[in-house]
Each structure stands twice: as structure tokens, then as C-alpha cells.
């Protein structure tokens, strides 16, 4: 029993190492050259501004979708690559500004309001980004609907393959 425990402990540093590597952006290997071929120049700049882990996830979603639906429209392919681009934003909200003034520094850094806000609003924020940089209107629409497709068949497809990830 004690021997077993010691053996398990011996493997702990390797386990922790693997976990921290999986969390670090530098370890992500997105297939950017392939992805850029599916985007307009403006959309490509937005894609490259995404975190490497989000780009890797986006490539996997797009490849999965294309494997099952090789006839997917160009807008759907681009939307699959950009669907989480809203996560690149970390806006400083008014309530955060107020909180930072009221709450002691150490406590305010631990409050997750900004991160929570971005997580919930990233489809709308992403769609706004696509529109602002001059991306295709249909791409923006699909990004906006990727968690709530409603009756949009293409958005529903994107939602399904995003969920499989
Ligand atoms: Fe998302
Ligand atoms: Fe996603």
C-alpha cells in the first residue's frame, strides 16, 4: 500500500508537467497555413490575433465539419475557424472599473467578472469583430449564432461540431 503510494507520487511531477504543457499556448500547434487559405485577408488577420489554443481548437472543429460535410459553404468554413474569436477580447467594463476602485487590489484581481462576461458574450463580440474588420456578413452571422443556432441550419452544424470537440 505504502509502496503503491510512493510509486504514484514518483509519477506526479510528469503528470503535472503534462498538464501545464497542455495549458500553455506555446504548445498549441494550429494548422495556420491551411486555415489561412479559407479566409479573406481581413478575416485572416483576425484569425491570427486569436490565442494559439483557440486556433488549434478552431482547426479541429473545421476539419471535423469538413470531413462529414465536404460541401460546406465558404462562409461556414470561415465561421468555423473564427467562431471563438470573441474570446480574444478582454474589455475593461464599467462595473469592473468601479469595482477596482472599491475593492482591495488583491481581492479585485481574483474576481472573475471580466472573464465571465467574455465567456458569455463571445459569440456577439466575435460577430462584431468580424463586421468591424470587414469580414463577410454571413460569416459574422454564423459566429453570432454558434451557441444559439435557432433555425439556422449552417449555424446548427457549426454548433454540433463545436460541441463534439
Ligand atoms: Fe464558442
Ligand atoms: Fe468553440
Automatic annotation (TrEMBL):
<dbReference type="InterPro" id="IPR006674">
    <property type="entry name" value="HD_domain"/>
</dbReference>
<protein>
    <submittedName>
        <fullName>HDIG domain-containing protein</fullName>
    </submittedName>
</protein>
<dbReference type="InterPro" id="IPR006675">
    <property type="entry name" value="HDIG_dom"/>
</dbReference>
<feature type="domain" description="HD">
    <location>
        <begin position="72"/>
        <end position="164"/>
    </location>
</feature>
<dbReference type="Pfam" id="PF01966">
    <property type="entry name" value="HD"/>
</dbReference>
Amino acid at each position: 500500500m505504502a509502496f503503491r503510494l510512493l510509486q504514484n507520487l514518483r509519477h506526479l511531477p510528469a503528470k503535472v508537467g503534462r498538464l501545464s504543457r497542455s495549458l500553455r499556448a506555446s504548445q498549441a500547434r494550429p494548422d495556420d497555413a491551411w486555415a489561412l487559405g479559407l479566409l479573406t485577408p481581413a478575416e485572416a488577420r483576425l484569425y491570427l490575433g486569436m490565442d494559439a489554443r483557440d486556433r488549434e481548437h478552431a482547426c479541429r472543429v473545421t476539419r471535423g465539419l469538413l470531413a462529414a460535410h465536404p460541401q460546406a459553404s465558404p462562409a461556414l468554413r470561415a465561421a468555423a475557424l473564427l467562431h471563438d474569436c470573441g474570446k480574444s477580447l478582454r474589455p475593461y467594463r464599467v462595473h469592473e472599473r468601479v469595482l477596482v476602485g472599491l475593492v482591495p487590489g488583491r481581492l479585485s484581481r481574483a474576481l472573475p467578472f471580466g472573464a465571465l462576461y467574455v465567456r458569455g458574450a463571445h459569440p456577439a463580440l466575435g460577430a462584431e469583430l468580424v463586421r468591424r474588420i470587414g469580414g463577410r456578413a454571413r460569416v459574422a452571422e454564423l459566429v453570432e449564432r454558434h451557441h444559439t443556432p435557432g433555425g439556422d441550419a449552417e449555424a446548427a452544424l457549426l454548433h454540433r461540431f463545436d460541441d463534439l470537440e
